[in-house]
Amino acid sequence: MNVLEIRNLTKKFGDFIAVDNMNLSVSEGEIFGFLGANGAGKSTTINMISSLLRITKGEIQVLGRNIVKENKFSKMNIGIVPQDLAIYEEMTAYENVSFFAGLYGLRGSLLKERTEEALEFVGLGDKHKALPKSFSGGMKRRLNIACAIAHHPKLIIMDEPTVGIDPQSRNYILNSVKKLNQMGCSVIYTSHYMEEVEDLCTRIAIVDHGKIIAEGTKEQLKSIITDTKETWIGVKNAERLDLDALKRTTGVNSVRLEEQTVKIVSKGEINNLNWVIQQLIRDQVEISSVEEQAPNLETVFLTLTGRNLRD
Amino acid sequence: MEFWIIGNKAALLFYVIFVSYSVVRGASPWEMLAYLSYLCVNMAIPILKKQRRFQLLGSVASAVLVALLAFRMNTIFILLLPVNLYEIVLLLGGRNRFALLLGLVPLFLIPNDEIPVYLLSTSLSLLLYYALRVHTEKLEKIGEEKETLRLDLQRLKQSLSMNEEYIRQSKYTIKLEERNRLSQQIHDEVGHAMAGALIQMEASRRLLGANPDKASELLGNAITISKEGLERIRLTLKDMKPRSEELGIHRLRLFVDELSANHSINATVTHAGDLDVITPLQWKIIHENATEAVTNSLKYGGATAIEFEIRVLNRMIQSVVADNGRGAGKIVKGLGIVGMEERAASAGGTVIVDGAKGFRVTTLLPLQKGG
């Protein structure tokens, strides 16, 4: 079953169309990435999924149920980590998590158990009594996540959870996203850090001006632009090179030599680096560097929209 | 909705009859006449369904009748007044606050002990009236939506059939062009060669007895010419593939040249990738969207340069029209943009309009590989 199903979703603010007839579905067990520049409509969509914004047109279903008609059901099954921190500075870490879990109807020993579990999960198990005031940016973010997962939601929505934090906390958060996913949660992840999305997500939608302009696995997205990759091999004694033999190597489309670099274009899905290097060794060519120039999501985004993600 | 009003009136009338019976015991003929005339006037209202003016007239008459009866006969009749008043307001399509006030007017004219009953019946009627109003508005809205959807559907259907017609026509045109080209080429090249070879061969036959050396030379010529002719035939046939790409990009170039000439705008076209894979229908969409984007740029953008770019990627065709004008912070979708979107959607694509640095309209169309 699809955890999330969005049909013809539109959000207007006056004349301005923030989300434009969007269709999307996220199946169970996916980490779904939302990629787009600022103002592309990511947060607006998320705010509609979490019922913070009223839907202008269209429908959203969580676990097959309409979120407007069965608002409580959808809220119980969604955990949201908002872009702006939603924690109380004056309450301890424990009180924060237990407060939010309490809002979802957890009581008594279950509440205690889940609160401790959530704090443990984000690595704040030893900070029960501490006030968020004393926390670093990364710790606050983690506490924010703990607040969102204590009630064991099926779908966790993370809106730019790694903005402005130290690399360590960032790694911690990325790992916990993977762990949550292994535990059976579906995750919607928005970010404009391309590497994060590329590393984490099983499926990605590129959003621009409120529309999904491309959607699929990262391989599918890259294949929109090209099916080939380029390998640049720096060589010392280029005169020994047998270009024709290289061209005959499995998967190679074309080979050209530019000064001291052999540029090999090959089919994207084939890993032929071993064969290529073997051929070079056979020719007794001295290799000084190897660089793979595969297209990344950044180039996909740039090519399709004509803009950089962080414009 | 009128059934509810009728029900409302009937309930109130029964109550009035019941009260006047239980109080006075037995009806006077005048009262009977009053009930019947009230019934007559009010039954006429739903019957005159299509004529709003007469309905209004009936309702007003009924209100006057009720007021008259209340004054001259029995104050209990005043209970029937609010329904009529609300009905009038409803028929006029007026505001409900106004209706509420109207209902309260008779409050000053009736005896104190009847005020609670009057208030009750008035508020019940008001509730009903309000619900009816909301209901009607909703129905009207749904009807309107349905109507726009129907029109949309019709328009899209029409454009779909136009596209089909276009495909059919362009197939036909390409066939025709191909046939013309073939016959022209066969005539120009192969035909001449064959004629040349034939002349040489005939000459050689005549010379065969008298001058065998010369005849053999001529025959040799004929063989060479025939060989060349054969080669030409091969080339001509090999070259047969339809060139929709030529048509497409040339038309765009022509359009851009015209644009530069007529509007003193620096317009350029660039393209990358294998344009051959773009189908005539996709070219049509690219053209129409480009024209629309240019209209937009000329109208609002204040641009001095427009750039056209067509790129064939691995799985998408991307056509960009970008100007260097002032663009727009927020883009309000007009008919032009909606039209572009619809055209793109008809081929499974999307349109992005960006106004951050001048207008930049990107049409993305999916590419079916090997299809």
Automatic annotation (TrEMBL), chain A:
Molecular function terms from GO: ATP binding; ATP hydrolysis activity
Pfam families: ABC_tran
Keywords: ATP-binding, Nucleotide-binding
InterPro entries, alphabetized: AAA+_ATPase, ABC_transporter-like_ATP-bd, ABC_transporter-like_CS, P-loop_NTPase
Domain of life: Bacteria
Entry-linked SMART domains: AAA
Domain ABC transporter: 4-234
Protein name: ABC-2 type transport system ATP-binding protein
Organism: Paenibacillus catalpae
Organismal lineage: Bacteria, Bacillati, Bacillota, Bacilli, Bacillales
TrEMBL record, chain B:
KW Transmembrane (keyword) present: yes
EC top class named in words: transferase
Pfam families in alphabetical order: HisKA_3 (PF07730)
Keywords tagged on the record: ATP-binding, Kinase, Membrane, Nucleotide-binding, Phosphoprotein, Transferase, Transmembrane, Transmembrane helix, Two-component regulatory system
Catalytically driven reaction(s): ATP + protein L-histidine = ADP + protein N-phospho-L-histidine
Residue ranges of the TM segments: 6-24, 60-81, 115-132
Organism domain of life: Bacteria
A Gene Ontology molecular function term of the record: ATP binding
Keyword match Membrane: yes
Source species taxonomy: Bacteria, Bacillati, Bacillota, Bacilli, Bacillales
Span of domain Signal transduction histidine kinase subgroup 3 dimerisation and phosphoacceptor: 178-244
This protein's name: histidine kinase
EC code(s) of this entry: 2.7.13.3
PANTHER family the record matches: NITRATE/NITRITE SENSOR PROTEIN NARX-RELATED, NITRATE_NITRITE SENSOR PROTEIN NARQ
A GO CC term assigned to this protein in UniProt: membrane
Organism expressing this protein natively: Paenibacillus catalpae
